C-alpha cells in the first residue's frame, strides 16, 4: 500500500535500490509499494492516507478513509496470521477506493459518498473474496493430505505390485558389473536375479 509510513528500514532499502533521487530521467523508477500482509499494514497505510487527506482532500474523502479504517480495525473475518487473507482485504479496500474515485470523477458525488457505506461484512465483493480464500485453503489442505500418504513411516502399508522376481532380489541383470558391486549385492540381497532368457 502506497500510503504506509516509511521507517528507517525502508530508507535503508531505498539506498540499496537502483533509485537515484538526484536523477530525473525516465530510467529512474521508484520500486513498487510492498503488499500489505497484516491488519497493521492496512491500518497504518489508511492512517497515513488520512493525515494526507485532511489537508488536501474534501471531507467526503476523509470520511471514506475513516469508514475503511474503522471497518478494517474491527473486522474479525480474517485471522491476524493470514497474510493471504489480508492481501485480499487490501485488494478489496483498494477496489472500494477505485470505485469512489471513478464515481467522483464522473461528477456523481452522491453516489461516491454512498461508497463509504459499502464497508460492510455483507458486501458481495468481500464475501466473494472470502469464498475464494476458503477455496484456496481447502486446496492447500487436500494438497497436504495427499503428501501425508507418501510419509516414509507409512510405506509398509501400501500394497506391492505382484512380480515374478522376489522383492529381496535385484530386478535387473546388467551385462558387466564390477566385482565390488557384485559383492555388495550378494551381501545386501540374496544375489542377482536369474539371467534373462532370450526368446
From TrEMBL:
<feature type="region of interest" description="Disordered">
    <location>
        <begin position="143"/>
        <end position="168"/>
    </location>
</feature>
<protein>
    <submittedName>
        <fullName>Uncharacterized protein</fullName>
    </submittedName>
</protein>
